[in-house]
Amino acid sequence: MAQILDPLPPEQSGKILCCYINATSKIQVARICNIPNWYFERVVFPGQRLVFEAPRKGQLEIHTGMIASAILSDKIPCDRLMLEETSTHEFDTDSLSGKDPLNTKSLVQQINTNTGDSIKPLQVAL
C-alpha cells in the first residue's frame, strides 16, 4: 500500500498509483512540485522502490545526491510511472491448492518418511 503522509488536496481528482525504482548507486530525492497546495518529497535509496499516489498530471523530479548538493537528473510524468491494476482473481490465494499464484510452482514439497512398514508423506512449507 502506498504511504501517504501528505494527502492530495481535495480539489485533485484522478489520482493514480505510481512506482519509481532508484536503479542508480546514489541516493536520490523524488519530488513533485507542479501540484498547488501539495508537498511531496521522499528520499529513495539505491535499489529502493518508491510506491506513491499522485495526480495524473503530476511530474516527478528526480534529484541525484552528490557530496554537498543534488542535481536535477530527470523529470518523469506520473502517468508514465502508473502501476497497472491487477484483477483480484490473479491473486486468489486458495490455501487448498498449495500453489503460488504468481509463479505457479508448488508451495508445499512432499517428503517421504519411513515409519516401519508404511511410507507416509510429510508436507513441509517452503
TrEMBL record:
<dbReference type="Pfam" id="PF08865">
    <property type="entry name" value="DUF1830"/>
</dbReference>
<protein>
    <recommendedName>
        <fullName>DUF1830 domain-containing protein</fullName>
    </recommendedName>
</protein>
<dbReference type="InterPro" id="IPR014964">
    <property type="entry name" value="DUF1830"/>
</dbReference>
